[in-house]
Write a structure and sequence with these properties.
single chain; alpha/beta; Rossmann fold; six-stranded parallel sheet; 39% helix; globular
Length: 390
């Protein structure tokens, strides 16, 4: 990473905001990259505002910043996803706290990273607000069906809640887009979603990837195991079922890495399928081992960007992805993976079968991943900071 200090970050005092701090996933890695970069310059990061904080370690940089949480954080953590109607109240409370904090410790800039509600945080007067948007709230706009039409009681409860509160929440989400001075989108797909949802333009800055950690096997010529891999949050919109059903259709083992609200129902649904292996949350070192061992990463969902897909390619692992969303920015058809059009297990299986020779793709994958460097990310973030402050 670069330690270069731009004109804008000299003597800059910044407040950060993030929807919730409960695990380390893609959104937290972007927050970490922003935080680390600011801390490596002369910028002072005063506070991190968040609706929920599990008090679990996230990253050293994030953990070093004092946190302010909403009153919702006092409630049992399993209720977090069921408190959606209270998110506007929580953000309003955090906005008032930010205003109060600003009186005693003024800031020059607010940076939020959001895929839910924290983008609505109101910055003090004359203080610009940059929002790195991973997506306009999916359950309100683009993927409501994924959250409400799955089998089971949880899906029915989500549907009832969104039927009751969805319109008012969408109205609030639209109105509060005006709190943002400049949107950043994590992909061209999300830039188009921001334009469609909020009628706002966004600068595209792809998330950075740890290509110095995620590297190919020491022997790139060694054959890979005939095993498939999914890595990510186990949520309804991720469509993990498509990856599993495609693996079953091809009679191939598949490794499922991750946790989430949909995990228990998937484990139950496939408990009689011994070649479907649920690993839960595992350390990066074990993820790296799977990236170096398996024959393809399956990304069956429409991803906002998909950091995992680039991490896999950095290890020489090709990606089979839906021909939509962030995959169009990160996966090159027939060079670093294959793309499929329909959310159908047979379509996924056919895309897996179309993968070219692994040795041919490994070099292409690694070269493609190197485009998403920390240096590039930092330079582009600095350019946006410059633009809103000058």
């Amino acid at each position: 990473m670069t330690n270069s200090i731009s004109k804008s970050t000299r003597n800059l005092t910044v407040a950060l905001a993030h929807d919730w701090l409960v695990a380390r996933r893609g959104g937290e890695l972007v927050l970490d990259a922003i935080t680390t970069h600011l801390l490596n310059t002369d910028a002072r990061v005063t506070q991190l505002y968040t609706m929920f904080d599990s008090s679990k370690p996230i990253t050293p940089a994030i953990d070093s910043v004092p946190r302010t949480t909403s009153n919702l954080n006092r409630l049992p953590s399993p209720l977090r996803r069921w408190l959606l109607p209270r998110y506007p109240h929580a953000v309003d409370q955090l906005s008032r706290q930010l205003q109060s904090d600003h009186q005693s410790r003024p800031i020059n800039l607010l940076i939020s990273t959001s895929s839910a509600a924290i983008k609505a945080l109101v910055s003090p007067e004359s203080v610009p607000h940059i929002c790195y948007c991973h997506a306009p709230a999916r359950y309100l706009w683009s993927q409501t069906d994924q959250y409400t039409t799955q089998p089971g009681l949880k899906s029915k409860l989500r549907a009832a809640g969104l039927e009751r509160f969805g319109d008012s929440l969408r109205d609030w989400d639209l109105r509060t887009a005006s709190t943002v001075t400049q949107f950043i989108a994590n992909s061209h797909f999300i830039a188009s979603e921001i334009k469609k949802t909020y009628n706002r333009d966004a600068v595209v800055i792809h998330p950075p990837v740890r290509t110095d950690y995620f590297t190919p096997p020491s022997d790139p010529e060694a054959p890979r195991a005939s095993e498939l891999l999914f890595v990510g949050a186990i949520e309804p919109y991720k469509r993990v079922d498509l990856a599993i059903d495609a693996a079953i259709e091809l009679d191939l083992p598949i490794n499922i890495v991750g946790t989430g609200s949909h995990a228990s129902s998937l484990v139950k649904a496939y408990k009689n399928k011994p070649r479907v292996r649920f690993h839960g949350h595992i350390p990066d070192a074990q993820v790296l081992e799977l990236f170096r061992k398996c024959s393809a990463l399956i990304q069956p969902q429409i991803e906002d960007f998909g950091i995992t897909a680039v991490e896999a390619q950095a290890c020489g692992l090709p990606v089979v992805a839906r021909r939509a969303g962030g995959a169009l920015d990160s996966v090159i058809e027939s060079k670093t993976g294959t793309l499929f059009d329909l959310p159908d297990a047979t379509e996924v299986a056919r895309a897996i079968q179309r993968l070219p020779d692994q040795h041919q793709m490994a070099h292409n994958c690694r070269s493609n991943a190197l485009r998403f460097s920390y240096e590039s990310f930092e330079a582009k973030i600095e350019a946006v900071i410059d633009s809103v402050l000058n």
